[in-house]
Design a protein that fits this description.
The chain is α+β, with helices and mostly antiparallel strands and 190 residues long. The longest helix has 23 residues, at 9-31. The radius of gyration is 25 Å and the shape is elongated. It contains four helices and six strands, in the order αβαβββαβαβ. The protein has a two-stranded antiparallel ribbon. It has a two-stranded antiparallel sheet with strand order 2-5. A two-stranded antiparallel ribbon has the order 3-4. A hairpin with a 2-residue loop joins strand 3 and strand 4 (111-116).
Length: 190
């Protein structure tokens, strides 16, 4: 005679509890499956300059980028030239950037191209602020994900007065001025 085990109430509760625990664990792990990166929202940034000094890296992982599709290629670029400079040339005394990280290249009259050398950029945002006030606002700051060590708790984010830092999905690590988020990498820099 075969013995057929009856499922009692206790077995039913154990099975239900185990299934609920497994489902909850899967949902919790599933939500955290994609890694997050810290990133700066250029629309909220007030160019306070704290990115230079509050990053754990020296120089900071925050770099200036130039969004060329909205750049005016201005001869009189306020992001490049010191206010009130006597000459509109590339002399060190005429440049706004304290580390000469912006390269000015003549294209044709009266247009110039401005490239950011990120190895020299310290993320001070002086050029970003000047470009926003007097220009098209094509200069903006971003955390370069290839430099950032992805601190568990970003030290710049803790000190940012405009609360412009947040965690973004690894698949969309950059925020662009135009609102584009589909690009995985910022424009190539020299």
């Amino acid at each position: 005679m075969s013995e057929r085990k009856k499922i009692d109430r206790r077995d039913f509760m154990r099975f239900t509890g185990a299934a609920a625990f497994t489902g909850a664990t899967w949902m919790a792990v599933g939500e955290k499956a994609e890694a997050k990166y810290w990133q700066l929202d250029p629309a909220k940034c007030t160019q306070c300059g704290q990115c230079t000094t509050h990053c754990v890296l020296n120089p900071s992982a925050v770099k200036c980028l130039n969004q060329f599709d909205i750049c005016g290629y201005c001869d009189l670029c306020f992001g490049y030239l010191q206010p009130g400079s006597r000459d509109l040339d590339s002399g060190a005394e005429n440049q706004l950037c304290p580390t000469a990280a912006i390269e000015r290249k003549y294209i044709e009259a009266p247009y110039y191209e401005y490239k950011i050398h990120e190895d020299k950029c310290i993320g001070c945002a002086k050029c970003v602020k000047a470009c926003l006030i007097f220009g098209n606002g094509s200069f903006y700051l971003q955390i370069r994900q290839d430099i950032c060590i992805n601190c568990n708790e970003c030290s710049i984010a803790k000190s940012c007065p405009s609360d412009c830092f947040s965690e973004v999905p690894q698949s969309q690590p950059y925020m662009f001025l135009t609102g584009d988020t589909y690009l995985a990498h910022p424009p190539a820099l020299s």
